[in-house]
Design the sequence.
């Protein structure tokens, strides 16, 4: 009898109490007092954006640089009056490169934000891509595989790994004396990053009559000795690498120690200025080249000099790297989209995405070549720059060639 | 009256009506982890067999479901079975995988099995990354939503219950509760009956068990198979909650997490596994979510102890504290009204 009473009591409580549950009143799109349409993440005086970053995992250094640079941009933006009279703030969530944590963080952050200017990790991006599409969140991943070009609402800022490799091979042909019939090695990470890059190098090699010697590695492999000896035995004339900074350093160091002096070209995630403090420094300075879509930190472009001085002022003693430049540009892209959306009086998620897509010649004030965001499914730019390590300059990289676009890169079509 | 103390469990039906998606998702992760942990606790806690390969069987369950229920596309294969059947097949597949390993599981004991089963993780990772057609490679593959008797457990259909719109997570919550309930009841039955006594004796006195006529190797093999089926079911629920199965996730750290769950919760019991799963799964998420509010923590990106670091330190400290001061696990923390003292059998 007692049990039955309790069950009945709980049931009654449940039914009556759901009436006052906060969930039953769905918050949706509305119109603010200033006539601007607003969606989730936008209130009368604040615009909230989300960042799913890695501050404790394998890409912690990159995550820190990007987060600090984005914070720097939004601080500047707010100091200049914000967007539509609203301050922009970022909700940072660290996932430590753990997909489960990232998915949970996404679920938590999603209802509170108007967009995601930073998502680190291609498995993370893949896990949330379907939800990003249904939630209509403009998202900028810190990864450049071509698979993301197809994902709606996801914007790659820069070019993809394929384009970098195609331009890189063009550089080898024109500047490093590689000619038809030569063999070149390609050391790449398994997974999306490496496969994307390999697709590019194979395409360019076929066009130029080169032969690619493949060496697939795992992110946990940090000693490149066996790869170097395999490539040496094949007699390759140059080595492409699509891996992390540690693999680049090992590859360059081991090759130089064995007297195997061939040019090494790396995709943009394969370098960090800290490498110049290791024993691999002379080998890197002699043979290593980085292919990227961003100008180096020692560039004299006005946008870059002001970014470098502002960043050094705010974070004295912290290393300048590609993450700082990329973080600032991606925040800039987002900020401009917000401003355009404000002009159109539509700060809903849909409105922000539409405003973003209206930008066909985005000017990053000399941080990157002009970017075109109007063509969904295509890259923002096919331009690459070749840079080489230099311990004497800020950011540890100095320009060597470019900006340029190889004919093969311009003709490349993404499947 | 004795049954009345289970009534608070009815409160578990309420969260979908009140809590937001973050909590529901966290709860579902807990349920999935609890199912897997119950299985591991049967093996490690009750039978004394250490397994490091639990995440492999979770992966078999998750990818088994995705493969059986998924549709054939350009670069992915799938059988397109009805999801309910796919769940059964996935659990059976995990069981088969466990059975295939059971000749080893039956012969080795304790830490030796732990080392042998470690190989499963590396094997599993290699296969998962390379069988593109089934797993989608490094980037994983979308998980088809659960569907049973014409009712889809996803965001479609505009289901409204008592004025609350039910999306995928709300619906899955009830499915998760049902699965966890069944899994817990079955494990309780196993532990209370003859198999449970046999398992405990094998753990405590292997020779005595053999002398008494308990087939030691066969029992070990059977428990290993059962435990992998539990992992398979946990993997299915995990995949349904994630909506995407990513190979990277089913690695070594996950296996260690499961071991942490049963040690923290309390070895050898169902409730211990559930408590441990709740603790290990929920605490890091809560700490990360509310880390901004912790004292002495600098906001992200300003240097100093960042919220995410603080969350890690606290989690580590909590684990050390429990192992030091609660040797029987969190389950040893008795709340008198909920856990009446049991007569201990000599």
Sequence:
């Amino acid at each position: 009898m007692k049990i039955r009473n309790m069950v009945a009591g709980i049931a009654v409580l449940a039914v009556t109490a759901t009436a006052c549950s906060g969930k039953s009143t769905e918050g949706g799109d509305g119109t603010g007092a200033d006539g601007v349409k607003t969606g989730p993440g936008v209130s009368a005086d604040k615009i909230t954006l989300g960042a799913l970053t890695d501050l404790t995992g394998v890409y912690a250094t990159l995550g820190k640089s990007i987060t600090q640079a984005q914070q720097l941009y939004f601080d500047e933006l707010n100091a200049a009056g914000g967007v539509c009279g609203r301050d922009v703030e970022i909700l940072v969530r660290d996932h430590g490169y753990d997909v489960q944590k990232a998915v949970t963080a996404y679920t938590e952050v999603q209802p509170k934000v108007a967009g995601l200017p930073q998502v680190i990790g291609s498995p993370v991006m893949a896990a949330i891509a379907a939800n990003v599409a249904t939630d209509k969140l403009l998202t900028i991943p810190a990864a450049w595989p071509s698979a993301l070009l197809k994902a709606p609402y996801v914007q790659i800022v820069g070019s993809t790994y394929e384009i970098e490799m195609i331009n890189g091979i063009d550089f080898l042909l024109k500047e490093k004396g590689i000619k038809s019939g030569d063999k070149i090695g390609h050391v790449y990470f398994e997974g999306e990053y490496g496969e994307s890059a390999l697709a590019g190098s194979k395409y360019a090699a076929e066009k130029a009559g080169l032969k690619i010697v493949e060496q697939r590695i795992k992110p946990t492999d940090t000693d490149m000795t066996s790869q170097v000896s395999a490539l040496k035995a094949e007699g390759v004339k140059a080595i492409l690498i699509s891996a992390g900074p540690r693999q680049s350093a090992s590859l360059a160091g081991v090759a130089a120690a064995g007297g195997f002096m061939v040019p090494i070209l790396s995709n943009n995630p394969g370098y960090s200025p800290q490498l110049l403090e290791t024993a691999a420094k002379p080998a890197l300075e002699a043979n290593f080249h980085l292919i990227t879509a961003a100008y180096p930190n020692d560039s004299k472009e006005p946008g870059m000099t002001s970014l470098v001085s502002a960043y050094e002022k705010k974070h004295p003693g912290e290393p300048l790297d590609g993450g700082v430049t990329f973080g600032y540009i991606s925040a800039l892209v987002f900020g401009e989209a917000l401003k355009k959306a404000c002009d159109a009086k539509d700060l809903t998620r849909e409105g922000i995405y539409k405003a973003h897509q209206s930008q066909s010649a985005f000017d990053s004030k000399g941080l990157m070549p002009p970017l075109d965001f109007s063509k969904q499914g295509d890259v923002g730019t096919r331009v690459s720059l070749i840079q080489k390590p230099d311990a004497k300059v800020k950011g540890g990289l100095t320009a060597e060639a470019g900006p340029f676009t190889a004919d093969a890169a311009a003709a490349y079509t993404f499947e | 009256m004795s049954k009345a103390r289970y009534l608070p469990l009815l409160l578990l039906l309420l969260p979908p009506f009140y809590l937001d998606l973050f909590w529901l998702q966290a709860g579902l992760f807990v349920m999935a982890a609890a199912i897997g942990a119950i299985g591991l606790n049967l093996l490690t806690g009750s039978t004394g067999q250490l397994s490091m390969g639990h995440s492999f069987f979770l992966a078999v369950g998750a990818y088994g479901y995705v493969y059986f229920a998924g549709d054939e596309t350009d670069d992915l294969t799938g059988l397109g079975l009805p999801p309910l059947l796919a769940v059964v097949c996935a659990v059976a597949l995990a069981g088969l995988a466990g059975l295939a390993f059971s000749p080893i599981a039956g012969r080795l004991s304790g830490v030796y099995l732990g080392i042998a089963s470690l190989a499963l993780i590396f094997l599993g990772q290699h296969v998962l990354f390379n069988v593109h057609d089934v797993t989608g490679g490094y980037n994983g593959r979308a998980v088809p939503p659960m569907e049973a008797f014409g009712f889809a457990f996803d965001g479609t259909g505009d289901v409204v219950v008592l004025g609350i719109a039910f999306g995928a997570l709300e619906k899955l919550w009830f499915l998760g509760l049902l699965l966890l309930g069944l899994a817990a009841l079955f494990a309780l039955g196993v532990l209370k009956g003859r198999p449970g006594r046999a398992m405990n004796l094998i753990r405590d006195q292997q020779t005595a068990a053999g002398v008494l006529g308990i087939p030691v190797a066969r029992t070990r093999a059977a428990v290993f198979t059962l435990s992998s089926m539990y992992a398979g079911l946990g993997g299915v629920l995990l995949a349904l909650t994630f909506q995407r199965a990513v190979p990277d996730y089913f690695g070594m750290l996950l296996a260690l997490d499961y071991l942490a769950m049963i040690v923290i919760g309390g070895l050898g019991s169902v409730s211990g596994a559930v408590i441990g799963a709740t603790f290990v799964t929920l605490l890091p998420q809560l700490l990360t979510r509310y880390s901004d509010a912790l004292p002495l923590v600098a906001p992200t990106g300003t240097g100093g102890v960042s919220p995410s670091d603080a969350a890690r330190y606290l989690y580590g400290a909590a684990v050390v504290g429990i192992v030091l001061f609660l040797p029987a696990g969190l389950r040893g923390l008795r709340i008198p009204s909920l856990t009446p003292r049991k007569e201990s059998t000599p």
Observations:
- The first strand of chain B starts at residue 141 and ends at 142.
- Chain B has a mean pLDDT of 81.
- Residues 24-250 of chain B form one domain.
